[in-house]
Structure formats: C-alpha cells, structure tokens
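Morning - iron/sulfur cluster inputs below, output right after.
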Amino acid sequence: MKSASDRTGPAAPARLLARIEALITRAFGAANPFHHLGALTIYAFYIALVTGIYLFIFYRINLEGAWASVQSITHEQWYIGGIMRSLHRYSSDAAMLLIGLHLLRELLRVRLTGPRWFSWVTGMPLIWITVVFGISGYWMVWDELAAWVAVASAELLDVLPIFTDPMSRNFVSNESVSGRLFTLIGFIHLVGLPVILVLAIWFHLLRIRYPRIHPPRQLMFGCLAALLVLSVIMPVTSHPPADLDMMPGSMTIDWFYLLIFPLQSATSPGTVWALCTGATLLLAALPWVLPRRAQPIAEVYLPDCTGCGFCAEDCPYGAIDMVPRTDGRNFALEARVNPALCVSCGICTGSCPSSSPYRKRDPLTTGIEMEHVPLDDFRRAIDQASQEGPADAVLVIGCDHAVDVSRLPGRALHSLSLPCIGMVPPAGIGYAIRQAGYPGVVITGCDSCDCHHRLGDRWIRARIERERQPMLRRRVPRERVLLTGYKAGQQVRLQAEIDAFRLSLEGAEQLQGTSQRRREAS
Ligand code: HEM
Ligand code: SF4
Ligand code: SF4
C-alpha cells in the first residue's frame, strides 16, 4: 500500500524552505517562529501599540513641542521612556520584517492559489497600511529625518491628482510648515491608521476559521526579551530638530520603512509609484498566474449525513454551511459545501461520525468525503496491507505535504498517504488496530503547529486524546497510537521515532500478541 491520494508532494522551493525550517525547529521546537509569522506580526503590533500609548502620554502633538517632548522622553526618563521609544521603533521594524517573511513563506509553500486567494490578496493592503503607518511615525519626531521624510512624502503625494495646491509647498521653508497639517498627520498616525489596520487584519482573516493570532508564550517572551536587549544596547535617538531652511547633514535611515525615499531621490516620485503599484499588482495576480491542478471539492452524501454539524465546525476555511434538510429525512439540517471555499483538505471526512470502516457497507460510504480519496479506498488499503507480510508491521499514515511515508526504509511498516492527517477518522485507527490486527498505528503529519491545512494536526490530536468528537474509542489502547509530525525530507528522524515506537510496543508485548493474532487470522 503506497498512497491513498494522488501525492505530488511539496515543490522544490517548499522543500528547500522545509530543510531550513527543520533546523530552526531543532532549536525552537513547537515555538519555531516560522510557524507563527502571522501571529508574531500581530504581537509586534501589540508591543508597538502599548509602547505608543505610553509615548503619547508625554508627547506634544504640535510643531513647537514635538521634538523637545521626544527628547525629554528619550533622555530625561531614559530608563523607561527611552526604552519605550526604542521598543516602539524596533517592534514596528519587526512587524515589517515579519510581514515580509510571512509573505515569502506563503509564496514558497504556494498557499495562495484556489480559495486561498482571498487571504493572499487582502495581505497586499496590509503592507501599504503598515508602510504608511511607519512613515507617518517618522513625522512625529519632527527632527531632520522627519523633515526629509515630510518633503519626500509630500512630493510623492503631489503626483496624485488629490490636492489642488501642491503639498510640497508646505515645506519650502520653516515658516511655510502648517501646524494643522502636522497635527493632522499626528491624528492619522495615532488614531486613523490603528483603526484601519485592525479592520484590515480582520478582513485578512475573514475566511480563516480559528486563526492563530497569539504566538506560543515562550516565543512571546523571547521576542520581547530580544527587543528589550536591542533597545538597551542600541537606544533610538533623534536627529537635530527639523530645519527646512538648511540642508540636513548625514542621516541614518530606517530601511524597513524609508527604503522608497532614497529610491525616489535617485529616480522620481512617479517611478516610485509605478514600481510600488506594479509590484503590488504583480503579487496580487499570482493566485491566478501560478499553475494550479484542478482539485476535487468535498462532496456530501446525504444518506449518510445526520446533520450533526461536526464537519462545519472543523472545516479550516469555513467551506461548510449547515442548511435545512432537503431529502425529507428526519433530521433538521444537512451539510452543504461551498466549492469556492473548499481547499480539498479532506479534514471534514475525519470529522464525520459516519466515517467508520467498521460499517458493513460495500462500497463504504460516509457523510462527506473527497472523490479522489474515498473512505472505501482507505478501508481497502488497510485490509489489503494487513494481509501482506510481515505480520508485525505497523501502519504509518502520512500526509501529502510532509515526509513521503512511501519512501520510509524497512519492511516492518505499511504506509499510506492522505491529503491531511486531519482526514483520518478515529474509527479508522481503531479498525486498523482491532480489526486489521496492526500492533500500532503511526500518524505523521506536518511539523508541530505547521499543518499545511492549518487545523488537521490540532483536530486529530484532540480526537485521539478523546477531547473532540468523533473520538478514538476507549477500547483502543492509546499507547498503540503514535501521533507525530516532520517536515518533508526528515525521513531519518521519523524513522528513528517509529523504531522507538516499535520498541515500546515490543516492550509491552503487543507486537508479539497482535502478530500472533494476525498469523492466526490469515
Ligand atoms: C499586518 C500584516 C499581516 C498579518 C498581521 C497577518 C496575519 C495572518 C494570520 C494571523 C494568519 C492566519 C494564520 C493561521 O491561523 O493559519 C494569516 C494567514 C495568511 N496570510 Fe497573513 N498577515 C499579514 C500580512 C499578509 C501578507 C502581506 C500576505 C501576503 C500577501 C499574507 C498572506 C496570508 C495568507 C495567504 C494566509 C492564509 C494561509 C492559509 O490559507 O492557511 N498575509 N495571516
Ligand atoms: S475538504 Fe477541507 S476545506 Fe473542503 S469542506 Fe472539507 S474540511 Fe472544508
Ligand atoms: S459531519 Fe457528517 S453527518 Fe455530520 S453534518 Fe457533516 S456530513 Fe453530515
């Protein structure tokens, strides 16, 4: 038995990424920051928000007082205000860096085609909003850098047909700078952009069920500690006060946010607009440009659907609605799949209580399943393999996005690959052990907290631990099920864990007992 699904496996860039991330997992374990980039970005915004509120208490939001108040925060109360200021800057930089990594990661893993286009495309405005947020933050200090940023951003805005009078006229001399304009930018930075950002993040996550918006605790502490250390050893300071009548001397700029301005100086505001807009449109078009295999969507089979709603609860992309019954059976609801949202993960099959290989039906049907990986094939594959030697082989169920279990060495296992381990029905585990006589079952998906389909690892764990319906039956010994996860390419480590598992089974004399039973049965 090789594969129940049409396994293509991750593409070369995703495999390379997996190799790099596997090294990081060795150091960080389940707190691998690459598995939590979206949540970490939100965390960076939290730090910027809290430190921003502190700074606002002492900040003077006018041209005359802004620079002096920032100086006072930075130097007079360096032990708290100065650190708050540095944390504010470095957490904002971290947000930008994390957004870049998050984008790159989703791109390399091609999690942007099909129904996932929505999260991808709604990520684009988030980049723009964050950049504008950062740029407007630099105005707030009203030092030489702020003046340079103000002039350059005014020139950028002048390219757009928004204002009747050119914005840059406000910055020809110290006298021409409008205090009201400065206060307006302050208001946009302090109130307008935070509100817009929250709304844009909410929109970005609209199609994601149970989004992970909090990183693991140890990662939160680690990141905060790293930012604190950076703030202490490299405290942020201001340039001399803004003076539009003088050419500023040399300035250090923040490449995370102000990258466009040197480019603008070297080219023109029009070129900057053209490059930024072009890059955004190009990225936004990727979901439709990249090649994509047609994927079958989940299909509901009403004769086996009792309208329990478990599949709708578990679907990671909210692709299932419970609607009034249409077949006259004595149930209030039935499941209905929205094809525009279904990513073909198969997790709903694992959620359905009807997905039980114990049922006598031939062919075996269930309430909801994938046409290319029917439950009947799953049962047949288990039955067939259990009759092929050796009798003490363990059953290894893998996932198409992680280690290719068909390439695991050794005779002492039978392997089967599914689109996601969340697709494994708990009754199927019981069936493999109690009916087909496997001494143990290994379920191996993606690395911890990194399920390609987001929730498969979470749901299967909860079902095996008997915390979520449908649960692993009490009669199935928990110690005979190994649930684990590795990245593509980590065959050796997986094999080592399987070997240790087999040893533990032998220790419990289960291998001997069950292989005996299987020999007797055959
Ligand atoms: C402020 C910036 C951003 C924040 C706070 C953010 C946050 C998040 C979070 C929390 C998730 C859900 C993770 C999960 O539960 O699995 C997510 C998913 C996603 N993000 Fe972002 N994101 C941001 C920017 C972007 C950008 C710029 C892109 C790319 C253009 C992007 C693309 C995606 C995609 C494609 C997914 C869905 C992946 C899937 O289908 O499972 N995000 N984001
Ligand atoms: S296959 Fe996955 S995305 Fe599609 S309906 Fe089932 S759980 Fe939802
Ligand atoms: S889990 Fe199965 S029985 Fe329950 S609503 Fe979904 S398809 Fe119907």
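Note: The chain is about 50% helix and 5% strand.

O.
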